[in-house]
């Protein structure tokens, strides 16, 4: 164990949400410590409960993939949506992909495009690749772009609260 892990763990145990998320990342990816999905879930959940959007997105991914928890698309959607509404680009892209694939939600390519569009605008570059594969008509793209604008306004309003 090195100083970074020890310091992060100490801060996480003291309730620091950022440290809890970082500790979850260490366990999830096997950095500094042996990979342990159960520990990753534990620390992501603690940070997510404090409103940490990145932790919510990471915990959503754990539920989507079934790593450290039983696979549960409904729970993944809830977590991705919480994080996405706070502006987390990873979760916005993940939510778009869930709509694209009909995982935990009804398949909806308009919503998929809209969330992917917002994710791309927030710097998640691979969202553009996901958007291109949707095969929407120009009318559907226009509808999705209008929905993107609504989503973006909602996210900006959430940031002010």
Distance between the termini: 40 Å
SS class = mainly alpha
Q: What Rg is obtained from the alpha carbons, in whole angstroms?
A: 17 Å
Poorly predicted segments: none
Report the average pLDDT across residues. Answer: 95
Total of helices: 9
Strand content: under 5%
Number of strands: 0
What letter string, H or E per element, gives the SSE order?
HHHHHHHHH
State the shape.
elongated
Helix content: over 70%
Q: Main beta sheet: strand number and arrangement?
A: none
Write a structural description.
There is one protein chain. The chain has 161 residues and is mostly helical. It has 9 helices and no strands.
């Amino acid at each position: 164990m090195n100083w970074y892990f020890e310091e992060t763990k100490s801060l996480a145990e003291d309730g620091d949400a950022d440290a809890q998320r970082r500790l979850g990342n260490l366990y999830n990816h096997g950095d500094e410590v042996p990979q342990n999905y159960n520990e990753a879930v534990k620390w992501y959940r603690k940070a997510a409960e404090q409103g940490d959007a990145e932790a919510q997105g990471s915990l959503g991914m754990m539920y989507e993939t079934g790593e450290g928890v039983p696979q549960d698309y409904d729970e993944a959607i809830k977590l991705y949506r919480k994080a996405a509404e706070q502006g987390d680009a990873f979760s916005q892209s993940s939510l778009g992909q869930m709509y694209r694939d009909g995982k935990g939600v009804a398949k909806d390519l308009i919503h998929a495009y809209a969330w992917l569009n917002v994710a791309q605008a927030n710097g998640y570059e691979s969202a553009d690749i996901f958007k291109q594969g949707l095969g929407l008509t120009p009318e559907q793209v226009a509808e999705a772009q209008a929905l993107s604008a609504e989503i973006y306004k909602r996210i900006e309003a959430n940031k002010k609260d």
